[in-house]
Amino acid sequence: MTDDLEDRRLVKRLLAHDREAFTAFFDGYFPRLYRFARTRLGEDPDTTKEIVHVTLSKAIRNLGSYRGEAAFFTWLCTICRNEINDYVARVVRERKHIVLTEDSP
Asked: If you average pLDDT over residues 40-61, what whole number do you get?
């Protein structure tokens, strides 16, 4: 229960634009989200970092929509999962549109 209370306090501080809260948010959740994403993306640390950064950015922009019905980390994981799905769909789409050319006619 204390984690839930701490998460709610952190969210309030973030909504109040507290710089220290942003640092605590990033430092506390980046490693956890990185592990979450890495297990789903495989051995691609650069893509994993990119997706986690996008996830945290989206979370900050949409913080007002966090209702506290789920744990804060669960909410972040949902955003991250959506980003992973978007990434995978984009990669599949790009692979379908590769045009192969031959060097000779």
From this structure: 94
Distance (Å, whole) CA 92 – CA 15 = 37
pLDDT per residue as tens digits for the range 82-104: 999 999 998 887 777 666 666 65
Q: Please give the Cα distance from 49 to 54 (Å, whole number).
A: 9
Neighbours of 22 (CB within 10 A): 15
Beta strand spans in the chain (E): none
Residue with tokens 């709610």: 8
**CA-CA distance, 37 to 95, in Å (whole number)?**
22
Q: Is the pLDDT of residue 1 over 50?
A: no
Closest CA to 40 of 2, 78, 97, 73: 78
pTM of the model: 0.83
**37 close to 51: Cβ distance less than 8 angstroms:** yes
